[in-house]
Amino acid sequence: MKLLKIEIIISNTFLQQLVEILEKSGVHGYTALDIFRGKGTTRGEHLSEGLLPTSRNSLLFTIASEELTTKIIENVQPFLDDRGGVLLTYKIDYASGLS
Question: What value does the mean pLDDT of the chain take?
Answer without folding.
Answer: 88
